[in-house]
């Protein structure tokens, strides 16, 4: 039995070194830390992620599932004595806000070399682990019954063909909706972008609180079109649904990041967790947990996930939109506060 325990201990240390790319000093620090990492997380299939991470590294992942806003509030409240070591997933705007408030620790993972620099914060305060993509979910039954068109471009959505059939979410509540309107303002320029949104909201009968709301209403057959994050995932979950996903001429996107919390109680384990998320093995687990577009080009996508080479990604200035969040939302409310918002 003693020999078996010894073998297991050696295996765990070897796994840690593989995923972290550790130096001897790091390995020494790892051995001094309790074998646990605490993660604030907004991601799918958390038990799967925790099980596979522990299997690969020997470190137990304890997690708290929180929305972006909830995680940011907790990190601010706990700034002098953080409970979390790592923050995984959620809106990039919240990560930028946390970076500006000194809540995150810069860390450049050795595995970031395999990731497009577009998805990595230049100083290492956050790194994308997958991409959230904005597209349109269409109800094919309603399109057929009503003779409605299939949109090809963002300009199509502001024509009269979509009036009363297009559902979106409220950016003052939903991080998904906030970066969607940022993408539109980035695409058209702010002056023309607000003019575009004036016409866009003339076609939406109401807004939903959550970013998932429009897709749910389209899936239920209540409306023909919904602006949805990762619309392809609906058909992956149920291929029998009468829906179709579409990406328009320019794809609005943002990274789902991972960051180390400033003042983390298990800093070496936090680095190992980040390294694992960015490794090929970790990326394959994260894709199983949430079938988003990956950040590594050497990951084979599962059926239904679009190949990033087939999408025309908009060049997004995340720092600008993060820094201007209050101004953009004030302008949005001054223009559209009369539009009703439902669950």
Automatic annotation (TrEMBL):
<dbReference type="GO" id="GO:0030975">
    <property type="term" value="F:thiamine binding"/>
</dbReference>
<dbReference type="GO" id="GO:0015888">
    <property type="term" value="P:thiamine transport"/>
</dbReference>
<dbReference type="InterPro" id="IPR006059">
    <property type="entry name" value="SBP"/>
</dbReference>
<dbReference type="InterPro" id="IPR026045">
    <property type="entry name" value="Ferric-bd"/>
</dbReference>
<keyword id="KW-0732">Signal</keyword>
<protein>
    <submittedName>
        <fullName>Iron(III) transport system substrate-binding protein</fullName>
    </submittedName>
</protein>
<dbReference type="GO" id="GO:0030976">
    <property type="term" value="F:thiamine pyrophosphate binding"/>
</dbReference>
<dbReference type="Pfam" id="PF13416">
    <property type="entry name" value="SBP_bac_8"/>
</dbReference>
């Amino acid at each position: 039995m003693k020999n078996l325990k010894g073998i297991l201990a050696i295996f765990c240390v070897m796994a840690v070194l593989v995923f972290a790319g550790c130096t001897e000093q790091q390995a020494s620090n790892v051995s001094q830390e309790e074998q646990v990492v605490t993660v604030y997380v907004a991601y799918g299939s958390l038990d799967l992620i925790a099980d596979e991470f522990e299997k690969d590294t020997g470190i137990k992942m304890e997690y708290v599932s929180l929305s972006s806003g909830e995680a940011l509030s907790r990190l601010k409240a706990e700034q002098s004595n953080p409970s979390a070591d790592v923050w995984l997933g959620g809106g990039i705007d919240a990560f930028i806000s946390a970076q500006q408030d000194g809540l995150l620790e810069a860390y450049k993972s050795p595995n970031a070399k395999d990731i497009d620099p577009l998805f990595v914060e230049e100083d290492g305060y956050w790194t994308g682990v997958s991409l959230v993509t904005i597209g349109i979910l269409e109800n094919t039954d309603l399109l057929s019954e009503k003779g409605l068109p299939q949109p090809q471009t963002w300009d199509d959505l502001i024509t009269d063909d979509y009036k009363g059939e297009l559902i979106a979410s409220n950016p003052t509540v939903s991080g998904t909706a906030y970066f969607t309107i940022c993408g539109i303002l980035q695409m058209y320029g702010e002056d023309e972008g607000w003019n575009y949104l004036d016409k866009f909201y003339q076609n939406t009968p109401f807004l939903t609180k959550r970013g998932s709301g429009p897709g749910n209403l389209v899936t239920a057959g209540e409306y023909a079109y919904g602006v949805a994050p990762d619309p392809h995932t609906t058909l992956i979950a149920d291929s029998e649904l009468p829906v179709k996903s579409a990406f328009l001429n320019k794809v609005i996107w943002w990274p789902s990041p991972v960051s180390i919390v400033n003042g983390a109680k298990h800093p070496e384990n936090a680095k190992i967790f980040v390294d694992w998320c960015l490794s090929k093995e970790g990326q394959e687990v994260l894709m199983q947990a949430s079938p988003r577009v990956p950040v590594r080009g050497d990951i084979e996508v599962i059926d239904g996930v679009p190949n990033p080479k087939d999408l025309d990604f908009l060049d997004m200035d995340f720092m600008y939109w993060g820094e201007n969040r209050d101004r953009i939302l004030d302008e949005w409310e001054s223009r559209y506060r009369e539009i009703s918002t439902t669950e």
